[in-house]
Amino acid sequence: MKLLRHFFTAIIIFSCTGTSFSQKIKPKKVKETMQRVADWQIEHFDGLYSDHKKPHHPLDWTNGALYVGMVKWAAMADNDSYFEWLKKIGEENAWQLYRRKYHADDHTVGQMYIELYRKYKDEKMIAPTKEQFNFLMYHPSQSILNWATPYHQDRWNWCDALFMSPPVWAKLYKITGEKKYLDFMLSEFKASTDFLFDKEESLYYRDERYFDKLDNGTKVFWSRGNGWVFAGLVNIMNELDPQSEAYAYFLDIYKKMAEKLIAIQTSEGHWAMSLLGQEFYPTPETSGSSFYVYGLAWGINNGILDKKTYEPAVKKGWNAMVSYVTKDGMLGYVQPIGAAPGKAWPDKTEVYGTGAFLSAGSEVYKLYGGE
């Protein structure tokens, strides 16, 4: 009876999307949808569409993840208004990172600052980030990666962190040419991967608390958590020489994850909130799924993934994500802030989901002929 109920739930979700998953993707339509989503999010920047009680701080990781995608959209847009919106946020916050010096979440906004520096060439946009990261290099955290040990989140002991902080280090390396940034990041990333990566499943545990936990008999691999990692790998590799040893290290993880991801994509096009538990989590979830679409499309665009093998997953995934965008431009089915598989609703969203969607669109647009 329980299995039958899950089956009918999945059928209802599929029938309500209104999208054919074989539908041809046109770059003009991709761009129009991205603009609609970006405009809706800016208009509702302080909106409360999830479980939080007040707007996120502009420098919070939630918004930092939005900016990562918004910068990609800004580079595609027909005018600089989106860049100007982002620049105003930086100016109003004196180009500072958020409160916690060591915590990866509070580094996320640095990705946006560096992209704005690349456009405007204004050193003040990145000066505070460089100063703080120099401090971290010369005063590295001595904490261990085990969960709930003293100051444990001063290092990257949860998989979300691999999206938040490492790309900032990689970007600093690229714009300064100073290898110290890359060396520090690579050392810490390897430590985190050795700790959190399940070699049998080619997926990351969210943190130590999930190593031995089962959910309906399956290992617990959180969709958005692995989405953070997969997108983070792409954002790191974008800054590295493809012939370098560092690039090869990240590429190896990326390829293993990509192969796993297309094997576990749902027939509806999204990925289950518990990646190995599709039967128990039939509800769509768009933040993790958008990151997978982003990463897979990037791999095809860069000649890393075989198009014949991987493009169907991108096509099905993107069409699914678009089907959960309202006429006004709100991306639905974004799981609220959490650390594990949970619930999502068509009328709930979050800024980081928008960021993931815009990242996905930026690569889907290229894949289907956009320039």
Automatic annotation (TrEMBL):
Single GO term (MF): hydrolase activity
Keywords associated with the record: Hydrolase
SUPFAM superfamilies listed in its UniProt record: Six-hairpin glycosidases
The protein's name: Rhamnogalacturonyl hydrolase YesR
Name of a matching Pfam family: Glyco_hydro_88
Entries under InterPro entries matching the protein: 6-hairpin_glycosidase_sf, 6hp_glycosidase-like_sf, Glyco_hydro_88, PolySaccharide_Degr_Enz
Signal peptide: none
Origin: domain of life: Bacteria
